[in-house]
Amino acid sequence: MKPIVFFFPDSQSIRDVIINKIGAEDGRLIYRQFPDSESYVRITKEVEDRECIIVCTLNDPGNKILPLVFTCKLLRQMRARSICLVAPYLSYMRQDAEFNSGEAVTSRYFAELLSAVCDSLVTVDPHLHRIKALSDLYTIPCRVVHSGKLIASWIKQHINSPLIIGPDEESEQWVSSVAEAHGIPSLVLRKKRLGDVTVDINALGLLSYKGYTPVIVDDIISSGGTMRDIVHKCLEAGLEHPVCIGIHAVFSDGSHGELFAAGAADIVTTNTIPHQSNKINVGELLAGAISDLLSPAAD
Ligand code: R5P
Fold first, then answer.
1. What confidence tens digit (pLDDT) does each residue in 127-161 have?
2. Which of 18, 238, 257, 262 sits a CA distance of 20 to 30 A from 108?
Protein backbone atom coordinates (compact mmCIF):
# COMPACT_ATOMS: atom_id res chain seq x y z
CA MET A 1 0.00 0.00 0.00
CA LYS A 2 1.16 3.56 -0.72
CA PRO A 3 2.65 5.55 2.15
CA ILE A 4 0.35 8.26 3.44
CA VAL A 5 1.43 11.83 4.26
CA PHE A 6 -0.18 14.20 6.76
CA PHE A 7 0.70 17.85 6.22
CA PHE A 8 0.43 20.51 8.89
CA PRO A 9 -0.77 23.87 7.50
CA ASP A 10 2.74 25.35 7.05
CA SER A 11 3.78 22.74 4.47
CA GLN A 12 2.07 24.09 1.34
CA SER A 13 5.22 24.84 -0.67
CA ILE A 14 6.58 21.28 -0.38
CA ARG A 15 3.32 19.33 -0.45
CA ASP A 16 3.14 18.52 -4.18
CA VAL A 17 6.76 17.55 -4.64
CA ILE A 18 6.64 15.19 -1.66
CA ILE A 19 3.37 13.56 -2.74
CA ASN A 20 4.52 13.15 -6.35
CA LYS A 21 8.11 12.13 -5.78
CA ILE A 22 7.42 9.41 -3.21
CA GLY A 23 4.11 8.33 -4.77
CA ALA A 24 2.21 8.83 -1.52
CA GLU A 25 -1.41 9.51 -0.70
CA ASP A 26 -2.33 12.85 0.91
CA GLY A 27 -3.75 11.97 4.34
CA ARG A 28 -5.69 15.27 4.51
CA LEU A 29 -5.08 15.87 8.17
CA ILE A 30 -7.89 17.82 9.78
CA TYR A 31 -6.36 20.20 12.28
CA ARG A 32 -7.62 23.36 13.90
CA GLN A 33 -7.46 25.27 17.15
CA PHE A 34 -10.46 25.83 19.39
CA PRO A 35 -11.11 29.42 20.53
CA ASP A 36 -9.31 28.61 23.80
CA SER A 37 -6.27 27.49 21.70
CA GLU A 38 -6.63 23.80 22.49
CA SER A 39 -5.93 21.62 19.42
CA TYR A 40 -8.37 19.49 17.41
CA VAL A 41 -6.89 16.71 15.26
CA ARG A 42 -8.79 14.20 13.10
CA ILE A 43 -7.73 11.54 10.60
CA THR A 44 -10.39 10.05 8.36
CA LYS A 45 -8.18 7.84 6.15
CA GLU A 46 -7.34 4.19 6.80
CA VAL A 47 -3.79 3.97 8.23
CA GLU A 48 -3.62 0.46 9.69
CA ASP A 49 -0.28 -1.17 8.79
CA ARG A 50 0.67 1.78 6.56
CA GLU A 51 3.85 3.85 6.58
CA CYS A 52 2.79 7.31 7.76
CA ILE A 53 4.68 10.54 7.25
CA ILE A 54 3.90 13.75 9.11
CA VAL A 55 5.25 17.01 7.68
CA CYS A 56 5.41 19.69 10.35
CA THR A 57 8.07 22.37 10.41
CA LEU A 58 8.89 23.18 14.02
CA ASN A 59 9.29 26.92 14.22
CA ASP A 60 6.94 28.34 16.86
CA PRO A 61 7.29 25.03 18.73
CA GLY A 62 5.18 26.11 21.70
CA ASN A 63 2.10 26.12 19.46
CA LYS A 64 3.00 23.17 17.27
CA ILE A 65 4.33 20.46 19.53
CA LEU A 66 1.05 19.46 21.18
CA PRO A 67 -0.95 18.97 17.96
CA LEU A 68 2.04 17.09 16.55
CA VAL A 69 2.20 14.75 19.55
CA PHE A 70 -1.59 14.26 19.41
CA THR A 71 -1.34 13.32 15.70
CA CYS A 72 1.41 10.78 16.43
CA LYS A 73 -0.62 9.27 19.27
CA LEU A 74 -3.71 9.08 17.08
CA LEU A 75 -1.75 7.31 14.32
CA ARG A 76 -0.42 4.79 16.86
CA GLN A 77 -3.91 4.19 18.16
CA MET A 78 -5.07 3.64 14.56
CA ARG A 79 -2.29 1.02 14.17
CA ALA A 80 0.00 2.80 11.72
CA ARG A 81 2.98 0.64 10.81
CA SER A 82 5.47 3.48 11.26
CA ILE A 83 5.57 7.26 11.75
CA CYS A 84 8.24 9.37 10.05
CA LEU A 85 8.37 13.00 11.13
CA VAL A 86 9.56 15.44 8.48
CA ALA A 87 10.46 18.67 10.27
CA PRO A 88 12.16 20.89 7.65
CA TYR A 89 13.16 23.20 10.53
CA LEU A 90 14.04 21.43 13.76
CA SER A 91 13.85 23.82 16.71
CA TYR A 92 15.35 23.54 20.18
CA MET A 93 18.81 22.79 18.84
CA ARG A 94 20.59 25.84 20.24
CA GLN A 95 20.17 25.29 23.99
CA ASP A 96 22.43 22.25 23.77
CA ALA A 97 24.37 22.83 27.00
CA GLU A 98 23.92 24.17 30.51
CA PHE A 99 25.54 27.57 29.93
CA ASN A 100 24.54 28.77 33.42
CA SER A 101 23.88 26.44 36.34
CA GLY A 102 20.29 25.30 36.66
CA GLU A 103 19.41 25.81 32.97
CA ALA A 104 17.33 23.18 31.18
CA VAL A 105 19.23 21.58 28.29
CA THR A 106 16.14 21.71 26.12
CA SER A 107 17.77 20.15 23.02
CA ARG A 108 17.89 16.91 24.96
CA TYR A 109 14.34 17.13 26.40
CA PHE A 110 12.89 18.01 22.99
CA ALA A 111 14.69 15.07 21.37
CA GLU A 112 13.40 12.71 24.06
CA LEU A 113 9.87 13.95 23.49
CA LEU A 114 9.97 13.48 19.69
CA SER A 115 11.85 10.17 19.86
CA ALA A 116 9.07 8.81 22.08
CA VAL A 117 6.27 9.50 19.57
CA CYS A 118 7.90 9.02 16.12
CA ASP A 119 9.93 6.24 14.51
CA SER A 120 12.21 8.35 12.31
CA LEU A 121 13.04 11.98 11.58
CA VAL A 122 14.02 13.92 8.45
CA THR A 123 15.21 17.52 8.70
CA VAL A 124 17.23 20.19 6.89
CA ASP A 125 20.54 21.49 8.29
CA PRO A 126 19.87 21.20 12.03
CA HIS A 127 21.92 23.50 14.26
CA LEU A 128 24.64 21.02 15.21
CA HIS A 129 27.55 22.64 16.95
CA ARG A 130 28.61 21.33 20.36
CA ILE A 131 26.49 18.25 19.64
CA LYS A 132 27.96 16.71 16.51
CA ALA A 133 25.17 14.43 15.27
CA LEU A 134 21.41 14.13 15.77
CA SER A 135 22.03 10.55 16.90
CA ASP A 136 23.67 12.01 20.04
CA LEU A 137 20.25 13.42 20.97
CA TYR A 138 17.63 11.38 19.12
CA THR A 139 17.14 7.66 19.69
CA ILE A 140 15.30 7.16 16.36
CA PRO A 141 16.91 7.00 12.88
CA CYS A 142 17.47 10.52 11.50
CA ARG A 143 18.23 11.77 7.99
CA VAL A 144 19.77 15.21 7.56
CA VAL A 145 19.40 17.04 4.26
CA HIS A 146 21.94 19.75 3.40
CA SER A 147 20.91 22.86 1.50
CA GLY A 148 24.47 24.11 0.78
CA LYS A 149 24.53 23.17 -2.92
CA LEU A 150 21.14 24.80 -3.57
CA ILE A 151 22.29 27.98 -1.84
CA ALA A 152 25.56 27.93 -3.82
CA SER A 153 23.63 27.60 -7.11
CA TRP A 154 21.37 30.51 -6.16
CA ILE A 155 24.41 32.67 -5.41
CA LYS A 156 26.12 31.65 -8.64
CA GLN A 157 23.03 32.58 -10.68
CA HIS A 158 22.26 35.89 -8.97
CA ILE A 159 25.44 37.49 -7.60
CA ASN A 160 28.55 38.84 -9.29
CA SER A 161 31.89 38.45 -7.45
CA PRO A 162 30.40 37.05 -4.25
CA LEU A 163 32.30 36.83 -0.97
CA ILE A 164 30.62 34.37 1.42
CA ILE A 165 30.73 35.59 5.03
CA GLY A 166 29.93 33.42 8.07
CA PRO A 167 29.20 35.15 11.39
CA ASP A 168 31.04 32.70 13.64
CA GLU A 169 32.74 29.33 13.86
CA GLU A 170 29.33 27.61 14.14
CA SER A 171 28.52 28.82 10.63
CA GLU A 172 31.75 27.43 9.18
CA GLN A 173 30.01 24.16 8.16
CA TRP A 174 27.40 26.01 6.06
CA VAL A 175 29.85 28.58 4.70
CA SER A 176 32.34 25.97 3.54
CA SER A 177 29.71 23.78 1.85
CA VAL A 178 28.34 26.80 -0.02
CA ALA A 179 31.76 28.23 -0.91
CA GLU A 180 33.29 24.93 -1.99
CA ALA A 181 30.44 24.07 -4.38
CA HIS A 182 31.52 26.84 -6.79
CA GLY A 183 34.98 27.83 -5.54
CA ILE A 184 33.66 31.10 -4.07
CA PRO A 185 35.96 32.98 -1.61
CA SER A 186 34.80 32.93 2.00
CA LEU A 187 35.52 34.48 5.37
CA VAL A 188 34.36 33.24 8.78
CA LEU A 189 34.17 35.95 11.46
CA ARG A 190 34.20 35.70 15.26
CA LYS A 191 31.01 36.43 17.22
CA LYS A 192 30.42 37.10 20.91
CA ARG A 193 26.76 36.91 21.99
CA LEU A 194 25.92 39.67 24.50
CA GLY A 195 22.20 38.91 24.89
CA ASP A 196 19.17 37.43 23.10
CA VAL A 197 19.29 40.04 20.34
CA THR A 198 22.71 41.66 20.67
CA VAL A 199 26.03 40.34 19.43
CA ASP A 200 29.49 41.74 18.89
CA ILE A 201 31.26 40.54 15.77
CA ASN A 202 34.94 40.96 15.03
CA ALA A 203 34.95 41.82 11.34
CA LEU A 204 38.44 43.21 10.74
CA GLY A 205 39.04 40.61 7.98
CA LEU A 206 36.46 42.37 5.77
CA LEU A 207 38.87 45.17 4.90
CA SER A 208 40.78 42.93 2.48
CA TYR A 209 37.70 42.18 0.33
CA LYS A 210 36.77 45.50 -1.27
CA GLY A 211 35.21 44.97 -4.73
CA TYR A 212 33.39 41.78 -3.74
CA THR A 213 29.63 41.51 -3.10
CA PRO A 214 29.25 40.42 0.53
CA VAL A 215 26.87 37.48 0.97
CA ILE A 216 26.28 36.65 4.64
CA VAL A 217 25.29 33.00 5.13
CA ASP A 218 23.94 31.59 8.41
CA ASP A 219 21.66 28.71 9.35
CA ILE A 220 19.05 30.69 11.31
CA ILE A 221 17.87 34.29 11.12
CA SER A 222 15.88 34.84 14.31
CA SER A 223 16.10 38.29 15.90
CA GLY A 224 18.28 39.28 12.94
CA GLY A 225 20.83 40.72 15.39
CA THR A 226 23.69 38.66 13.98
CA MET A 227 23.00 39.62 10.36
CA ARG A 228 22.40 43.29 11.25
CA ASP A 229 25.74 43.58 13.02
CA ILE A 230 27.60 42.17 9.99
CA VAL A 231 25.66 44.39 7.58
CA HIS A 232 26.82 47.41 9.62
CA LYS A 233 30.41 46.15 9.67
CA CYS A 234 30.41 45.57 5.88
CA LEU A 235 29.17 49.10 5.24
CA GLU A 236 31.69 50.57 7.72
CA ALA A 237 34.45 48.66 5.88
CA GLY A 238 33.36 50.30 2.59
CA LEU A 239 31.90 47.13 1.05
CA GLU A 240 28.66 47.00 -0.94
CA HIS A 241 25.28 46.45 0.71
CA PRO A 242 25.28 42.72 1.60
CA VAL A 243 22.87 39.99 0.60
CA CYS A 244 21.73 38.03 3.68
CA ILE A 245 21.04 34.32 3.23
CA GLY A 246 19.56 32.20 6.01
CA ILE A 247 18.61 28.55 5.73
CA HIS A 248 15.77 28.85 8.26
CA ALA A 249 13.54 31.96 8.17
CA VAL A 250 12.65 32.05 11.88
CA PHE A 251 12.37 35.88 11.89
CA SER A 252 10.98 37.20 15.17
CA ASP A 253 8.45 40.04 14.84
CA GLY A 254 9.79 42.99 12.85
CA SER A 255 13.25 41.53 12.32
CA HIS A 256 12.88 41.12 8.55
CA GLY A 257 12.11 44.81 8.04
CA GLU A 258 14.81 45.84 10.51
CA LEU A 259 17.39 43.89 8.51
CA PHE A 260 16.46 45.74 5.33
CA ALA A 261 16.51 49.02 7.30
CA ALA A 262 20.04 48.15 8.50
CA GLY A 263 21.18 48.06 4.85
CA ALA A 264 20.70 44.52 3.52
CA ALA A 265 20.45 44.60 -0.28
CA ASP A 266 18.36 41.42 -0.29
CA ILE A 267 17.26 38.72 2.16
CA VAL A 268 17.00 35.15 0.90
CA THR A 269 15.97 31.95 2.69
CA THR A 270 15.00 28.38 1.90
CA ASN A 271 11.38 27.31 2.33
CA THR A 272 11.95 25.19 5.48
CA ILE A 273 9.71 27.82 7.16
CA PRO A 274 7.20 29.68 4.97
CA HIS A 275 8.21 33.36 4.67
CA GLN A 276 8.21 36.11 2.06
CA SER A 277 12.01 35.76 1.77
CA ASN A 278 11.83 32.10 0.59
CA LYS A 279 13.63 31.78 -2.75
CA ILE A 280 15.30 28.37 -2.48
CA ASN A 281 13.12 25.24 -2.55
CA VAL A 282 14.25 22.23 -0.49
CA GLY A 283 11.21 20.09 -1.39
CA GLU A 284 13.06 17.71 -3.76
CA LEU A 285 15.85 17.16 -1.25
CA LEU A 286 13.34 16.29 1.47
CA ALA A 287 11.41 13.95 -0.80
CA GLY A 288 14.65 12.07 -1.61
CA ALA A 289 15.48 11.64 2.08
CA ILE A 290 11.95 10.46 2.91
CA SER A 291 12.14 7.85 0.12
CA ASP A 292 15.39 6.53 1.64
CA LEU A 293 13.64 5.93 4.94
CA LEU A 294 10.62 4.13 3.51
CA SER A 295 10.77 0.37 3.27
CA PRO A 296 11.00 -1.08 -0.30
CA ALA A 297 7.67 -2.82 0.29
CA ALA A 298 5.94 0.56 0.47
CA ASP A 299 5.90 0.94 -3.36
C1 R5P B 1 23.65 30.80 16.28
O2 R5P B 1 24.03 29.94 16.97
C3 R5P B 1 22.97 30.61 14.95
O4 R5P B 1 23.79 29.96 14.05
C5 R5P B 1 22.55 31.96 14.40
O6 R5P B 1 23.72 32.74 14.19
C7 R5P B 1 21.66 32.66 15.35
O8 R5P B 1 20.62 31.81 15.74
C9 R5P B 1 21.07 33.91 14.75
O10 R5P B 1 20.23 34.47 15.68
P11 R5P B 1 19.82 36.00 15.61
O12 R5P B 1 19.17 36.23 14.29
O13 R5P B 1 18.86 36.16 16.76
O14 R5P B 1 21.06 36.81 15.81
1. 998 899 999 999 999 999 999 999 999 999 999 99
2. 18
